[in-house]
Amino acid sequence: MMGVIGGTGLNRMMGLTDIEEVAVQTPYDSKPVSISCGHFAGNRLAFLPRHGKGHVVPPHRINYRANMQALHQLGCQAVIAVNAVGGIDPVLVPGAIAIPEQIIDYTWGREHTFFDGQNGQVEHIDFTAPYDASLRQLLIASAQREARLQLLARGVYACTQGPRLESMAEVQRLQRDGCDMVGMTGMPEAALARELGLPYACIALSVNLAAGLGEEVITMAAITAVLNSGMQRVLHILARVIIEWGQQREQNQAVEAGTAQ
Ligand code: HPA
After folding, report:
1. Model-level pTM?
2. CA-CA distance, 28 to 39, in Å (whole number)?
3. Which atom of ligand 1 is nearest to the CA of 210?
4. pLDDT, tens digit, for every residue of 21-57?
């Protein structure tokens, strides 16, 4: 089963049918994580709105450990994260989509690891390539089939602390660091997925030019307008990815079972 983590603008997964709401208790929160399980594009899918139902949890207060652990406990074999970002690369005008290849973590004070020494386990995971290569290829191939879509099939995601947007000088620093987009929720999610051994990739929707790169002040109204149409495209792209991913898994299972045609 694929897990999808929805960000700002994707609190409900349109097209998800036969929905069962599951409350998953984890060791990382007194409250269970609520996940919508159902069918999407012919496959089982678990949908988790990152900011909670009704978009009430700000980026720095999200319980990333509970969320990732819950998807893992439910039996997800891979996770696709949907993130709204500010565009830094010129391709990433509002409405454009990126499938980032790298990430830089500028956050602080977040519970960011399952290996915090509490259970006597010291682990240093490899994070050279933060995103799963084959999931990224599925996302890129699907996005390339969208008509009139500005697509950045690479790029570095800068994760800032939020909830405020950046100063102009901060965005200029991100540019000097080689960042192509900026959001507030990419970390520690990506690293926690790796700690759990879950293949993880991100589809990022640009909803504004990063601070100081556009003429206008960034407003929530302008962002919301882009989110509404942009997330429809994200869902189209996801539908093709989920179909492909399901077929690939079936083929792999057939090969393992020695029944491949
Ligand atoms: N900065 C950080 N996070 C964001 C932005 C931004 O400009 N837009 C959407 N999420």
Report:
1. 0.96
2. 28
3. 7
4. 999 999 999 999 999 999 999 999 999 999 988 778 9
